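agent> Task received from the user: take the single chain below, predict its 3D structure, and emit structure tokens. No templates, no multimer pairing.
agent> Plan: (1) validate residues, (2) run structure prediction, (3) serialize to tokens, (4) report one or two observations.
agent> Step 1 OK, no nonstandard residues flagged.
tool_call: predict_structure(input=
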Amino acid sequence: MENKSVTKEKVVSKEVLLPFVVITGLFALWGFANDITNPMVAAFKTVMEISNAKASLIQFAFYGGYGTMAIPAALFIKKYSYKKGILMGLILYAVGALLFYPAAQFEMFGFFLGSLYILTFGLAFLETTANPYILSMGDEATATRRLNLAQSFNPLGSIAGMFVASKVILASLQSDVRDGAGNLIFDTLGISEKAAIRTHDLAVIRDPYVMLGFVVLVMFVVILLLKMPENKNVDHSVHPWQSIKRLLNNKKYREGVIAQVFYMAAQITCWTFIIQYADNLGISKSTAQNYNIVAMALFVSSRFISTGLMKYLNPRLMLTIFALGGMLTTSGVILMEGMAGLYCLVATSAFMSLMFPTIYGIALHGLGDDVTLGAAGLIMAIVGGALMPPIQGALIDLGTVGFLPAVNFSFILPFVCFIVIAIYGYRTIKVHPVN
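)
tool_result: status=success, residues=435
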């Protein structure tokens, strides 16, 4: 079994420890971008006076950038190197973040969408590079554990992003001030008063992204000056169509991409609309974001625990069990009104914790020279986070569905996603066992 061989090899050797630590830092960096952005759907909905469906275009632009740039990033990396791929990613990341300054000046929602789109071009480069790079830093038998370890630091960045969103952005939004009954005062104001508040709030949203852009530029300089390991036997010739053909014929990989699409859809819907779920209970955005932080804390702790358990348990079995757990908690979100449903939504993060890196590691296992383009396909699958939020936003805009509040019913979407992931986990055990 896969987990038996894991105990015989070091997860990270001393020779690659420093590069491993630096690249692991990138996981936190894109985690920050992901989770400072998720609450912006609710923020832009109010301050720009748009529907949930239109506000969800934030996620469409953010995760759509992955779908656009993942394969070009893989071809760039294949032709050049992991290090150059990372540097290109950091430049695009910084440019997208810094574009928030003119976006706020023009007060155009479309400009913000374009800035996020470019920013995620950079994230696509970073994730397409960093994930297989981590897998390559040691024995293949420990690859899934090594990636889970590196990915464990991704939610640390996410928690930092959530904290900044909650305490720096959402808590400072004048558009989210409420009266004693919990209703938004912004909705009752005149045009000129709303315009003044909009200018203030867009500047509040802008500043953390601009500062993030400068942090990313510092990381660019660090990696530019640092000597990074490269496999000197790598063939840098690019033959994408041959690789694509082999990947499409690989059922385990093909099904892994599908599972990853549905995982990302589940993750982003659960984390994006926790604020709307809480809002339906009369909870302010900044307070609701605290529930997101608790959810991420569960995610982090569960990621570290599950990574340790992989030394003893088959990761494929764990993936299946955790998907069933996600189905259980999202059932509670749908059927339980009030705080009980919100608690179930928070608990869902514990079951999502191991899914991305485990699906990623299983799908890439044994791909050989096709691993770079294979990694791009799995990063491209992040587009699931772009496709599902607008659908869920449209459902929430309905108000009610039958006897349920629409915000509760909308979580039928992540429930279906967990079904797909459970099926993949089961098939990796029974249909696609480790050779």
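agent> Step 4: summary for the user.
Residues 76 and 170 are 38 Å apart (CA to CA).
agent> Done.
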